[in-house]
Amino acid sequence: MNRPFTLSDAPAKGCREAPVLKERGQREVFCGLTGIIWLHRKMQDAFFLVVGSRTCAHLLQSAAGVMIFAEPRFGTAILEEKDLAGLADAHDELDREVERLLARRPDIRRLFLVGSCPSEVIKLDLSRAAERLTRKYAPHVAVLNYSGSGIETTFTQGEDACLESMVPVLPESPERQLLLVGALPDVVEDQALSLLSALGIETVRVLPSRRADAPLAVGEGTVFALTQPFLGETAAALERRGARRIDAPFPFGEEGTTLWLRAVAAEFGVSEERFEAVTAAPRARARLAVAAAAETLEGRSIFFFPDSQLEIPLARFLTRECGMRAIEIGAPYIHKGLVGPDLDLIEEGPLLSEGQDVDKQLDRARAARADLTVCGLGLANPLEAEGLATKWAIELVFTPVHFYEQAGDLAALFARPLRRREMLKALAPATGEAAG
Ligand code: SF4
User: Fold this and answer.
1) Largest Cα–Cα distance of the chain, in whole Å?
2) Pocket flag, ligand 1, residue 370 (CB < 6 Å)
């Protein structure tokens, strides 16, 4: 297969064809509602109305760190016992809730009805509700729906489902354009747009757009580049609309960013000279910043529990740019079509696992005793208590980590728990106390 980027120092044998241990069992991950926390910050005129239980409301409030009276752009329409027992028409109640909300908040231009475990258990048809409410409130408000329930694979699937829900209602356009797909913090998105503009790529749009009135459209002239590896359903929806995906490693670290940009540059016929002129300085800065953190990471081992779906691109970054040794790379779901270029760059050796059977994986993590274990919040404290240094995977979606200027911060996120552990060991050698 021809790839539009060069891999001059790719390993002789990468992991793309390596056997994958498939596991199905108890999982320890957050549900897709979590994505609302970063999506509502990104989409400045959207509101996320979770149709769920008090548990869902608590999850959102504690994850977002705000109380509901702060008027955030998300909330929960709580299904009471009578709804769950089928004694009330949940659709009527939802309509009343939406009417109250939109009357109070005229700034809302996009309303997402977000399904949860309870709404799915009672088979509340939110797509019917979204169609009905769109008819009522268009053109000022578009009402869409997606599922954020814990019945799905993992928490990043919430973003995938949200973006996928927007694709069918995008206007059609034959225009030649690049679509960046993934909700990045504004500062990171601006950096990416500035690099692409310097490369001479004229029409670049972003999904999700910050505001509803952004000129976003899709069609056969659209090529798109994912910035997150967990957007498989969104990619498939865009392909159904005639768009074509650019295949590349994900833009983490200096190498990942360069290969991602190079793939985009090849698609748009950017000359090698221009590419070098635009990327040379930020590449050098990124290399320098990564090297500082890599002093701590060099030669250390790492074990990934399946959690964020970022595991494979991160393992590529940590093994190739920071000198770490991956023991196991677990991912909730391995979409080789998306992460294949990253797998090509990871030297054969680590165990690749897909899905989760948490007890078995804990046994392997305890046997491996890696220098650093990347896992969900629920596993981190118990593993710390057993003397393992951990990194919370969820931090990686709340922190700016993409592209050149964040490469050093990304490496530092992994170096920090190791440094803290060393400092604590030095301070209290007798107790062996440490923290993550
Ligand atoms: S959607 Fe399901 S897993 Fe998520 S908070 Fe609600 S009940 Fe819990």
Assistant:
1) 69
2) no
